[in-house]
């Protein structure tokens, strides 16, 4: 085999490996919150993430707008927002149930009330984001 052919084969193999690795790291756009709906607007008006009725008590919803945010309702009428990016290895959290924000990548669990770590491997809580509640609408402040 000539050097030119050998180089072409090696370059092709490297290209296939790179494409395969990038595909494996692709955006997991189908990840959603406990409501099964991760729409950017939640059916609410422009600039509004969601409505109060869309966030279940003890649960929450994950949104891609605002740099990735999870909105929770730990107690009736109390709404909180946190970064949806897990502090362990930057996976997007997967759901909110039982007042816990869960990351299915490695099993980290965060409090829906304050974003603190309830179960590792994460050692740092989720960053809180400011919310604006206007009537029934919820948006980032």
Throw out a few tags for this protein.
about 140 residues, about 15% helix, four-stranded antiparallel β-sheet, 1 helix, globular, alpha+beta
What's the short version?
The chain is an alpha+beta fold. It is built from 1 helix and 11 strands; from the N terminus they run H-E-E-E-E-E-E-E-E-E-E-E.
Mean pLDDT comes to: 76
Distance between the termini: 64 Å
SSE pattern, N- to C-terminal: HEEEEEEEEEEE
Count of DSSP strands: 11
Q: What structural class do you assign from the helix and strand content?
A: alpha+beta
Major sheet: order of its strands?
2-3-4-9
| Distinct helical segment count | 1
* Portion in strands: 25-35%
User: Main β-sheet, in a few words?
Assistant: 4 strands, antiparallel
Global shape: globular
Q: Which residues form runs of ≥5 with pLDDT under 50?
A: 17-44
Percent range of helical residues: 10-25%
User: What's the gyration radius in Å?
Assistant: 20 Å
Protein described:
The protein has 141 residues and is an alpha+beta fold. Helices cover 16% and strands 29% of the residues. The chain contains one helix and eleven strands; from the N terminus they run αβββββββββββ. A hairpin with a 6-residue loop joins β6 and β7. It is globular. Mean pLDDT is 76; it is low at 17-44.
List the helices and strands and how they pair.
Elements: H1 3-24, E1 50-51, E2 60-63, E3 69-75, E4 78-83, E5 95-97, E6 100-102, E7 109-111, E8 117-119, E9 128-129, E10 131-134, E11 137-140
Antiparallel strand pairs: 1-11, 2-3, 3-4, 4-9, 5-6, 6-7, 7-8, 10-11
């Amino acid at each position: 085999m000539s050097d030119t052919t050998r180089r072409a084969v090696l370059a092709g193999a490297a290209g296939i490996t790179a494409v395969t690795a990038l595909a494996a790291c692709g955006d997991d756009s189908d990840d959603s919150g406990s409501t099964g709906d991760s729409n950017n607007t939640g059916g609410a008006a422009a600039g509004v993430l969601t409505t109060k009725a869309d966030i279940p008590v003890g649960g929450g919803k994950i949104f891609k707008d605002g740099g990735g945010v999870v909105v929770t309702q730990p107690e009736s009428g109390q709404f909180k927002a946190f970064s949806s990016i897990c502090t362990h290895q930057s996976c997007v959290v997967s759901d909110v149930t039982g007042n816990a924000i869960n990351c299915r990548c490695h099993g980290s669990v965060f409090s829906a009330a304050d974003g603190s770590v309830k179960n590792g491997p994460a050692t740092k809580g989720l960053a809180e984001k400011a919310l604006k509640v206007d009537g029934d609408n919820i948006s980032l402040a």
